[in-house]
Design a protein that fits this description.
mainly alpha, Arc Repressor Mutant, subunit A, 2 domains, elongated
Length: 157
């Protein structure tokens, strides 16, 4: 049963990356990592760590994955994973928006209020307001509707 659950979380994480759903793209690999650690599935854990480390741009996680790959003789596989071009989630964003600003902009584009955005992203409403100010300045939008239009035009919504 463990292998099915780990495989599914790993696969769902990869699917979330492809769908550009950052929240799920982080949650599923983290769940798969925990399952792999509990079961002692070192090969699966190594691959999960490499992918998660790449996604989060976390060199500590990548280093742990590489260490496991070295111990298991999986250096070529590790190299092929790390040599892939950056995923679209890491592409440059129009307007110079940060990843967090893109997350806020996506939720804004869905018609969410500052309070709803704050709750979903686990931020204060003040922080959301600060992000919105930066989004408006960077996109040249005058209001939330203008920012949402920017998001739609640039494939960020």
């Amino acid at each position: 049963m463990f292998f099915i659950a780990t495989f599914m979380d790993h696969a769902l994480g990869v699917a979330a990356i492809c769908a550009d759903d950052r929240l799920k793209a982080v949650a599923h690999p983290s769940a798969a990592e925990g399952q792999a650690r509990r079961a002692g599935a070192r090969a699966e854990l190594a691959l999960i760590l490499l992918r998660r480390g790449q996604l989060e741009q976390n060199s500590v996680v990548v280093t742990e994955g590489l260490r496991l790959c070295d111990q298991l003789g999986m250096q070529a596989l590790a190299g092929s994973i790390l040599d892939r071009p950056p995923h679209p989630m890491h592409r440059s964003v129009p307007g110079g928006l940060t990843q967090r600003e893109v997350e806020v902009l996506r939720l804004l584009s869905q018609g969410r209020t500052n309070r709803q955005i704050a709750e979903e992203l686990v931020l204060s409403e003040r922080t959301v307001a600060n992000h919105l100010g930066a989004i408006l300045a960077k996109t040249g939008a005058d209001n939330r509707a203008g920012a949402a239009t920017f998001a739609l035009r640039h494939g960020l919504a």
